[in-house]
Design goal:
Blueprint lengths: L11 E7 L6 H11 L8 H6 L6 H11 L6 H17 L2 E8 L1 H5 L5 H13 L1 H5 L2 E9 L4 H13 L6 E5 L11 H9 L3 E6 L5 H9 L5 E4 L7 H10 L2 E4 L1 H6 L11 H7 L2 E4 L4 H4 L3 H12 L3 H13 L5 H7 L1
Parallel strand pairs: 1-2, 2-3, 3-4, 4-5, 5-6, 6-7, 7-8
Bound molecules: 6-chloro-9H-purine and zinc ion.
């Protein structure tokens, strides 16, 4: 008899999760009522039923629309708390959470309400949920990089409690090089650097994120397998890749889980972790992702433990704190 994966789930870190992408339909309706905002669906079940995506853009359209319910500091606090409660159940002990400041600024939500709402809950996360956390400000690559730079300066001036910066939203047509000045400023300010690359875009975007942005970590990065020379480099440098296999299937970056390059990335010796990305939208928190890849690839206990260990060693925690988790 085989043991269910859940019975032996190893503790893990989650390194790739968008806090706005953790908005459950039920909470969306609660916040919509509280704020007098209308959602174009009659109830949570109809909204959840709309989570069928053709590609990254079709997801981003719905994700942006649902975000309209997030208006106040309390909304961001409630959103963050709900994620932490569910993540704790998934065995998450450390979470590096991204937020999209520009998605809220364009709607007139003050930056400090967003940051204070999220950070106020993260401050108490270790005590209340048993999860240590770090916060990442992610910039929209399909917006002008001057806007990203302006938002970064505002975060720095406000001494916002962020560990680093990221780059997300539509990838094709918006290469990493556009954001060189933003990442140079982040590096100068002592911030850590990650970037979505090679999700829908080519392997060259991964190379450019490393070389032009000095990214220390790559989000998704599944296109790396198209470029053996790049695979050899990221293996040699042990660049962490935060892979989101269920997200990639749901956004049709890969046709099916069985065809996902995760096993090839592991076999090559890359430092890969598995992550949820936007859990309710893709129907899977990180424990569900663990179950899905364990079943699809018949992963051994050792391989699952290696994925969990890589989630800590790929984190932005200092080495002594990583060692304490391993
Ligand atoms: C995202 Cl799956 C994905 N890709 C790019 N940007 C994003 N923002 C939220 N989820
Ligand atoms: Zn993502």
């Amino acid at each position: 008899m085989t043991t269910p994966a859940s019975a032996s789930r190893p503790p893990r870190a989650e390194l790739h999760v968008h806090i706005e992408g953790t908005l459950e339909p039920e909470l969306a309706f609660e916040l919509a009522a509280r704020n007098g905002v209308a959602l174009p669906y009659p109830d949570p079940a109809s909204l959840r039923a709309a989570y069928e995506f053709e590609d990254l853009q079709s997801f981003l359209d719905l994700y942006s629309a649902a975000m309209s319910v997030l208006r106040t500091e309390a909304d961001f606090a409630d959103l963050t708390r709900a994620y932490l409660v569910r993540a704790a159940r998934a065995g998450v002990r450390h979470a590096e959470i991204s937020f999209d400041p520009q998605a809220h600024l364009v709607r007139g939500v003050p930056l400090e309400d967003v940051v204070n709402g999220i950070a106020g809950v993260l401050e108490r996360s270790e005590a209340e949920h048993g999860i240590t956390t770090l916060l990442i400000a992610a910039f929209h690559r399909d917006r002008d990089s001057a806007d990203a730079l302006d938002v970064l300066e505002r975060l720095l001036a406000a001494d916002a409690p962020i560990v680093g910066v990221g780059l997300d939203n539509a990838e094709v047509g918006y290469p990493p090089g556009l954001f060189q000045a933003v990442y140079a400023r982040a590096e100068e300010a002592g911030l850590r650097r990650t970037a979505h690359a090679g999700e829908e875009g080519p392997a060259q975007n991964i190379r450019d994120a490393l070389d032009l942005l000095h990214a220390e970590r790559i989000d998704h990065g599944i296109a790396v397998v198209d470029d053996p020379e790049l695979v050899a480099r990221v293996v040699a440098e042990q660049v962490p890749f935060t892979v989101c296999p269920v997200s990639n299937v749901r956004l049709r970056a890969v046709p099916a889980l069985a065809e996902h390059p995760l096993p090839a990335m592991i076999e090559a010796g890359m430092l890969v972790s598995i992550n949820s990305d936007d859990p309710p939208y893709f129907g899977a928190y990180v424990d569900d992702v663990d179950d899905a890849v364990t079943a699809a690839f018949d992963l051994t206990r050792e391989q699952r433990a290696a994925l969990a260990a890589a989630s800590f060693s790929g984190s932005f925690l200092p080495p002594d704190r990583v060692a304490a988790y391993l």
